[in-house]
Amino acid sequence: MAVLSHFRPCTFWKLIVILVLATILLQAWHMMMLFQLESMVKDKSSSGESQNQSFPDKNDTPQGQIQETGESIESLIKKMWEKVTTANVLDKSGSYVVIDNILEESNSKKDHTQDVTIVTQCSSNHLHHLLTLSKTWNGPISVSVFTHDQDTQFAIYTIAYLIACVKNISKQVLFHIAFPVKNSPLPFDLHDFTVSCNDRIDTFQSKSKHLNYAVEGLEYPNNLLRNIATQAAKTSFVFIVDIDTLPSPEMRMSFNVFIKRHKQFMNSSSPIAFVVPSFEVNSQVDVSSIHTKTDLKKVWNDSKVRPFYFELCWKCQRYTDYEQWGLLPDFDFLEIGYFVDWEDPWEPFFIARKSDLPLYDERFKQYGFNRISQVCESYVKGFRFAVLNNAFLLHHGFKVPGNFHSKKEEEQNRNRQLFREFKKELKLKYPMSDRSC
Prior knowledge:
The chain has 437 residues and is of the alpha/beta class. It is built from 13 helices and 13 strands. The protein has a 9-stranded mixed beta sheet, with helices on both faces. The protein is globular.
């Protein structure tokens, strides 16, 4: 009995040690297989893909990207102008003419179901951001362009230039146009000035002086533009961002691998928002040096990078929990870092299944509460918010008070009142939901 009683505890602890070692070995094997899977996808995607990223000024066109892609600029301009002059589709308010995919036969006609589309919108004088965005993302992009009056000429010229001269854009980007009924495009002479792929983009884009929110008598319909671009996306997932931001290199590729690993997210009845932490980058920083989370943390520690809207509205972003995100292990693959309970007024940027997303409320125009309206409704609808461990979004330049158009506060106050009414309406729209915002 003495021998038996001594033997059993020893055997028990040996089994525990063996199980612990086996668990460690299985985890190591799992990590190795994930790394190999990631590497295989990188190898398949690396052909012709550049890792350099920057935020070019419109006067600094990266000429290495410029090469004729096929159809002439003049031919593209004629096709688009014909579309504009014959357009008859209005938005639901009847205030805007909408042209979905102004060049149907060009680019992105493939149905990349298992992929992510960047969805964005802008006025014509911000289209130059697509030069770098398309290069960094290296995948499908859907962009809605707001134009009006004589600005339409510059919008059309710019789109034609980008498609005819930039390979990434001709293959990846779908363009859509919206303009006010009361400010319809003005006719122009095709030969007012000529454009070629030898020109820099500022040659003609600088002729357009109109900013998103500062055109007298016009309201910039940001939510309408987002909806147009979202509905036109041909992929299962969408990532709705501002056109002057850049995703981290390889985010698209890493996310696609992540979804293949977690197929339950493709068909889950529980919608989920994959949150991408967003940052502002000091304008003196060479953004092309920020490839990885490790790179980002170095400049973050030097106070050359900070969380998005840090000065303007910290409470709008702080629930991302940047401190926790920075402490996550720096794996080479994408994974969920942690979940966050949504709280007002958090408005994260996130990737989500297109079929799950509620459309934006198009009553919100100009500045304030336009983006959060969709985040709020997503939460009430039942979305969970999962912060991704390695992905990030960069905005060039710190956002500071005072760098906005003169009517910003007036517009924000008006939209604040609309947002209060909007939240009441959500209670009627989702009567079975126990959530409110």
